[in-house]
Amino acid sequence: MVRSFSDPSYQVFGTPFDGYVNILAILSLAATVVLLVGFNPTFWASLFGKADVDYRILTITSGVMLLSGMVHTEYTIAPVQFVAYGVLIVGMVLQTIISATGSKNAFCLWYSLVYLVVFSMAIPVVYRSQITYAPAFHLIEAVVSVALVIAFTYMLYRMFGGKGSNLLLWIPIITATIGDAVILVMRWSESVNSFLLIFAVASVIVFALGKILFATVK
C-alpha cells in the first residue's frame, strides 16, 4: 500500500476496480490491527502463560485479515501472501494433531483438514479484467470472494472450537461451485485461471468423496 500511494504514475482510486481493492485492503488491515490489539486479550495472555484462547474472535481476526489477501493490489507481493497463508495452514495442522490425539474421529478430523485447505485454495482472488462486461465481472468476483472468505472463517472457527470432525457443509461448497464456475466462464476467453479451476474441481471431488467416506465411518 505504501508503494501504491508513493507511486505518482499510479492512481490508487483511479478506477472503480482500483478503488475497491485498495479500500478493502486498507480497511482489512486496519480492522485486523484493531481486532488483534483490542479484542484478543486471551491470545496475548496465551503467549506469556497458560490461558484459554477465545478462538471465536481470533478466527474472525484471521478472516478479516484474509480479505486483504484476496484482492490483487498494484504492488501485491505474492511470496509474502503465500508464506503468511502457509503459517495459517501450519496452525490448522497443529490444531488437528491436538484434536485427533486419542479421538475416535481422527480420520474425520484429518480429512476435514484436507478439505478445508483445498476449499481455501478455491477462494478467488479479485483480479482486474478487460472483458466486455468487466464491471459486472468485478462485482461478481468481489461478492464470491468475500462470501467464501466468510465461509472459510466459519469452518476455521469450527475447527479451532473443537467441532472440526465434519466440515463438509453444503452451503459453502454450493456457493464455491456456482461462484467459481461463473467467474471462470465469464473470463474464459480472456484468461483461464488454472489455479482456481483445479482447486474448484478438487474441492467438489474431496467434498463428494468425503460425504461417502463419512457415511461409511459413522
Description:
This protein is mainly alpha-helical and 218 residues long. It is built from 9 helices and no strands. The chain has helices at residues 2-6, 16-38, 41-47, 55-69, 78-100, 106-121, 134-160, 170-186, 194-217. Helix 2 (16-38) packs antiparallel against helix 4, helix 6 (106-121) packs antiparallel against helix 9 and helix 8 runs antiparallel to helix 9 (194-217). The protein is flat, with a radius of gyration of 19 Å.
Short summary:
With about 220 residues, the protein is mainly alpha-helical. The chain contains 9 helices and no strands.
Topology record:
Elements: H1 2-6, H2 16-38, H3 41-47, H4 55-69, H5 78-100, H6 106-121, H7 134-160, H8 170-186, H9 194-217
Overall pLDDT metric = 96
Spans where pLDDT lies below 50 across 5 or more residues: none
SSE string, helix = H, strand = E? HHHHHHHHH
Q: Total strand count, please?
A: 0
Shape: flat
- Terminal Cα separation, in Å? 49 Å
Percent strand = under 5%
Rg: 19 Å
Helix percentage range = over 70%
How many H/I helical runs? 9
Q: How does the major sheet shape up?
A: none
- Counting helices, strands and paired strands, the structural category is mainly alpha
Quick tags:
single chain, mainly alpha, 0% strand
